Amino acid sequence: MKNNSTLILLFGGLLVFLGLVSCGHAASEQKASYGTRVKYRAGQKIEFPDFTVEYVGERRESVPVYPRGFLYYDFKVNKGKAEKVVSWTTGTGVIDSTDFEIEGKHYQLELRHSDKLGKLKENELVIWQRNPRS
After folding, report:
1. How big is the chain by its Cα radius of gyration, in Å?
2. Measured on CA atoms in the order 46, 52, 58, 62, is the torsion positive or negative?
3. Which of 52, 54, 60, 75, CA to CA, is 20 to 30 A from 28?
4. What is the predicted pLDDT for the residue at 91?
């Protein structure tokens, strides 16, 4: 009976280990829909219907009129061979979306606050499709 208990314990441990490994692999890329809260972290690719976005980090830039500088959050957006970096900042405190275009389509990236969904957590973003401004 002791041999069966050991075998069950080993098999159970193997299943837990494989579950953890597969969860870690699945977390490196996720699928998302427009207009929904999505958690992001550095090095993680998020697949939207028209492109992939990846958080690459933050940086601070100073200008002579505002030496304290601005904190920018940078995201790499890829669609096929097209690639660009989209940067979001609160600037001097106004929390607003950042507009961007890729392959002729227009989008908005929101951090910290969404006009439609309210306050966002620090590691959440929302991307909306939008019509180009006339």
Report:
1. 21
2. negative
3. 60
4. 82
Map tokens 């002791």 to a residue: 2
How far, rounded to the nearest angstrom, does the alpha carbon of residue 13 sit from its chain's CA centroid? Answer: 32
Mean pLDDT computed over every residue of the chain: 83
Q: How far are the Cα atoms of 26, 54, 79 from residue 21, in angstroms, in the given order?
A: 9, 21, 28
b (16+ CB within 10 A) / e for 84-100 = eebbbbeeeeebebbeb
User: Residue with structure tokens 């830039």?
Assistant: 61
Nearest-angstrom CA–CA distance, 42 and 53 = 11
From 10, 34, 7, select the one nearest 125 (Cα to Cα).
34
Binned at pLDDT 50, 70 and 90, residue 8 comes out as low
Residue 29 carries which side chain, given as an amino acid letter? E
